Amino acid sequence: MTAPALTPPPLSLYVHVPWCVRKCPYCDFNSHERRGELPFAQYVDALLADLDHDLPLVWGRTVHTVFFGGGTPSLMPPEQIERFLQGAASRLRFAPGCEITLEANPGTAEHGRFEGYRAAGVNRLSFGIQSFDDGCLQRLGRIHDSREAEAAVKLAQDAGFDNLNLDLMYALPGQTLAMAEHDLERAFALQPAHVSHYQLTLEPNTVFAARPPEHLPDDDAGWDMQERCQTMLAQAGYAQYEVSAYAQPGRRCAHNLNYWRYGDYLGIGAGAHGKLTLGHEQAILRRWKHKHPGKYLQTAGTAEAIGGDDRIEPARRPFEFMLNALRLVDGFTLTQFTRSTGLPAESIASALADAVRRGWLECDGDAVRPTELGRRFTNDVIERFLDEPEPEVPEP
Ligand SMILES: C[S@@+](CC[C@H](N)C(=O)[O-])C[C@H]1O[C@@H](n2cnc3c(N)ncnc32)[C@H](O)[C@@H]1O
Ligand code: SF4
Hints:
alpha/beta, TIM Barrel, Arc Repressor Mutant, subunit A, three-stranded antiparallel β-sheet, 15 helices, about 25% strand, globular, binds S-adenosylmethionine, binds iron/sulfur cluster, Heme chaperone HemW, 4 iron, 4 sulfur cluster binding, Elp3/MiaA/NifB-like_rSAM
């Protein structure tokens, strides 16, 4: 039997901006506290050189979404965002109506800034709100209060942005169920198109991991908040489509959906990760760039800026695919699995059957979706798709 062909899925472009005004104590993203003037003009030169270097990997392909993530991309002056987008559009074909998102910290909102982003081509903003409770915001080390957060969202709406996401976190230090509910009510009042609702996690190598904050809600309290907030979001017209993502009809985030569907993405910028299907080699390549902004600025556009390349062997692909696809409420189709991994559906038949028997997944013809139970135990379900471990070699 010949193996099915690996078909390049839709392509996205991710652009990382690695600086913030202040480092939040819970955050493990590649973000560095700003010290003095930031070299944004030089950074855009580096981004375009980086893009040039990766272009042969995506020759002739169309970009369906662009995402400026961080760090804090809203620190970038609109003129530099515009210069980057113009440079990118002269090197790559952008799909008509291409979704272009920029992450914004409400503490960086200024008059004129959002108009500038819109004029540059940005058509979606994602605000890091986290909470509307000033005590919670302070304990999270945020640079803005709740009033500033609301004002920033309104400024963006006045500038014509109607496709807005608000990031909220729950299970925060000192937070009660009533406070988590109140955060959602304040969010709904702003009528965003999309809400991302994340449970606070203590990530390794963060200040919070080293010194956990006091009065963290326990697991049961966190679970109660999640359940109650899911209900409130549904009642307010936000349909859950992924573990933490909720959208009004037609407003799901196309960029993140492409990740979760095991799509392709070019990763440009300090520490950015990319995943690309190389049709001619029948290979899947993961590539990441140097994390440190200084080193990245000096080397972008050369092989030295590449932090690493990793080819994803066929045995690893089912796990990688599930790690993404099983986050989606709608799951995936076996046709999608075969096209984007180059593997026949039979290669996962026994793991699938096992997960169905345990009540974690349900299959309907070509479609596979996690059940309510499966969504509670996502990690256990995904583990079923790990390739067989190498036999252990005894120590000499
Ligand atoms: C790169 S940040 C968004 C933009 C901007 N940097 C900001 O914070 O305003 C992405 C989002 O991930 C979420 N996040 C970051 N660290 C987290 C953690 N430890 N636990 C849960 N969510 C987290 C936050 O909601 C944050 O807004
Ligand atoms: S502003 Fe955002 S990216 Fe920066 S440290 Fe805070 S959470 Fe992380």
